[in-house]
Write a structure and sequence with these properties.
Layout (H helix, E strand, L loop, with lengths): L5 E2 L2 H6 L5 H15 L6 E6 L2 E7 L12 H13 L7 E7 L3 H9 L4 E6 L24 E4 L3 H13 L3
Parallel strand pairs: 1-6, 4-5, 5-6
Antiparallel strand pairs: 2-3, 2-4
Helix pairs in contact: 2-5
The structure holds zinc ion.
Amino acid sequence: MTIAPLRASAAAMNRSFPLPAPMRRALDLAAIAAESGEVPVGAVVTRDGEIVAEARNAMRGQVDPTAHAEMVAIRLAATRLDSPRLDGCELWVTLEPCAMCAAAISLARIGKLNFAAEDPKGGGVLHGARVFAQPTCHHKPEVLSGIGETEAAAQLQAFFAARR
Ligand code: ZN
């Protein structure tokens, strides 16, 4: 089975300019991550349009290889909502989630995943493991990519360029 994620069209992005507030916030969190020496990725969980939790990459700061922005935001949202299931929630993240985070999104039963830039090297949604397309994946969120991708890609390029 293949998934057919929606892509934000140029027209749709023009209509939604400025960016949806949660993605705007996720991009700002990614910038904060970069200032701390973390790969710039930010994530926000919303429910009914309200921000429930937000996080940015913290692998170095927390000395935790699993402290990806999405993982930290999902854990925080579950704590705040006092439920291991985030039914009806949306996740907004600046980079295509990796396979670990995609699995966590499925386990959390997040209803919709919105991400900015695609990640051909490390992504697990449209690339690599394509977690949501596997028969062992029992909850597949709606997926929308491309919202804010220009800014997200620029953040990542600037971060890695400064480290070469
Ligand atoms: Zn991840």
